[in-house]
Specification:
Elements lengths: L7 H4 L8 H14 L2 E8 L5 E13 L2 E10 L1 H21 L7 E3 L5 E4 L1 H6 L4 H4 L14 H15 L16
Antiparallel strand pairs: 1-2, 2-3, 4-5
């Protein structure tokens, strides 16, 4: 529509639940129940689909009850959210791989998260090990030298160094 006002049907995607009927129902609900904001899949004047945040608010204009619509594009934000979800799934696939022993530590070396493979090695739960400094966990058994080497490497990493350390893990000296 180049010459006249846009009709609601011109801007909704038409794919459920983003239909003209649903949009009209939201307008009716706002007219009786008050303001509402929501995300919506809109159709641009060029026919492209784009995500928007719509804020609807009842208003009286020249003595007539109306519903005002404020719309802003959120397409870029939605794309960033999608990329973040994809990266999170990729991270989880690598982190939870059954053949890897993976841990996330805070800068002081305290365990924040460990994958299932590591926990199964010592038959522990996250709550039993979480918050413990890695070199104080049961994986190192009674080997104080190995604990010191590990602590030194973690402290070096927290200073920004990139230490390389190969260790053998087990529980109680296994």
């Amino acid at each position: 529509p180049d010459d006249g006002p846009l009709d609601l049907g011109d801007v909704v995607s038409g794919d459920p639940p983003y239909t003209e009927a649903t949009a009209r129902e939201r307008v009716r609900t706002v007219a009786t129940d008050g303001p509402e904001s929501f995300e919506w899949l809109n159709r641009t004047a060029d026919g492209d689909l784009t995500w928007v945040e719509a804020s609807l608010k009842p208003a009286t204009i020249a003595g007539r009850e109306r519903v005002l619509s404020f719309v802003r594009s959120i397409g870029e934000r939605k794309e960033r959210e999608r990329l973040l979800r994809d990266r999170q799934r990729q991270f989880e696939a690598v982190f939870d791989h059954p053949s890897s022993f993976t841990a996330i530590l805070d800068p002081t070396g305290r365990v924040r998260r460990m994958n299932r493979s590591v926990m199964d090695l010592i038959d522990a739960t996250a709550s039993e090990v979480g918050g413990t400094r890695l070199w104080e966990t049961p994986w190192w058994g009674a080997d104080d030298a190995e604990r010191r080497r590990l602590r030194g490497a973690i402290e070096a990493a927290s200073r920004g160094d990139t230490p390389q350390l190969e260790v053998t893990i087990g529980s109680d000296g296994e």
